[in-house]
Design goal:
two-stranded antiparallel sheet, 271 residues, transmembrane helix, 7 helices, transmembrane, Urate_ox_N
């Protein structure tokens, strides 16, 4: 491929990736914040009813009220799903352009492995990482927030340590970010959306739906808000090689970025 074409393709995909990422993370945090406001309001009421949330923006006042039943036909319900898929697909395209279809994946000073094996390892990390995460959430471990947080951190530490001993440091950082992004996307498409479809179908028939579906979707959405900030940190790390992946303590710095991201998400969620 011509270098100029590759450059424009890289730039175009990167712009698209950033744009869709802004849409996805923005609506994720908005709804998470909104849900938190409803929870606070419900705790302050004694009648068990939901209070509306009032907001002001762009020269107008807005009120949003949480409903426990479906008051419109299912086709009038707005979904938020394509932001996640388009962000992930454009991210995969960038991963291919920058690493799988170039020399940025393997560092001979780190490991002497062929490009094809490196690509296989990268894909295996994305697929296997999701599988481990999903099984952990559905196990008894997922019922304890503290225990799951410790497990998630230890798994992140182990995977990042392994990648830093196989890939170039820059590629290792990006693959940890890509793993988080993959988990977030599959949370939306494989766990949150199916639960929401069942909820809407039951509500449309005026049947009682399993409250566990709501809890499952809410938990996965919560996890996504905690992964979003570390993903952003890791994705922009390639612009700061001395401070991040090029540092002698690149592994420790990567883990610190994850912890700082989690702390930042905690602050945003409780604002």
């Amino acid at each position: 491929m011509n270098s100029a074409i590759r450059e424009w393709l890289n730039l175009g995909v990167r712009w698209f990736h950033v744009f869709t990422g802004i849409l996805w993370v923005g609506q994720t945090y908005y709804f998470t914040w909104l849900d938190g406001q409803f929870s606070k309001a419900e705790k302050n009421r004694t009648d068990g009813k939901s209070s509306p949330v009032w907001m002001v923006h762009s020269g107008g006042f807005y009120t949003v009220e949480k409903q426990k039943s479906l008051g419109v036909s299912p086709e009038l319900v707005r979904w938020f799903r394509w932001e996640a898929m388009l962000t992930w697909l454009s991210g995969l395209a960038l991963l291919t352009l920058v690493y799988y279809a170039s020399s940025g994946l393997i560092d001979p000073d780190v490991a002497q492995i062929p490009q094809s094996r490196g690509i296989a390892i990268g894909i295996a990390v994305l697929v296997g990482g999701w599988g481990i995460y999903d099984l952990a959430v559905r196990s008894a471990l997922g019922k304890s927030e503290a225990a799951f947080a410790v497990f998630a951190f230890l798994m992140t530490a182990a995977i990042s340590w392994g990648l830093l001993h196989v890939f170039s440091a820059r590629a290792a950082y990006l693959h940890v970010g890509a793993l988080f992004g993959t988990i977030m996307t599959l949370n939306v498409w494989e766990r949150i959306l199916p639960a929401q479809r069942k909820m809407i179908a039951a509500a449309a028939k005026e049947d009682a739906f399993d409250v566990g579906l709501s809890a499952q979707a809410k938990l996965r959405s919560k996890h996504n808000t905690f992964m979003a900030v570390p993903v952003v940190f890791l994705m922009i790390s390639n612009h700061f090689p001395v401070a991040t992946y090029g540092n002698a303590h690149s592994w420790e710095i990567l883990l610190a970025l994850v912890l700082i991201g989690w702390a930042a998400a905690k602050v945003v969620r409780s604002a």
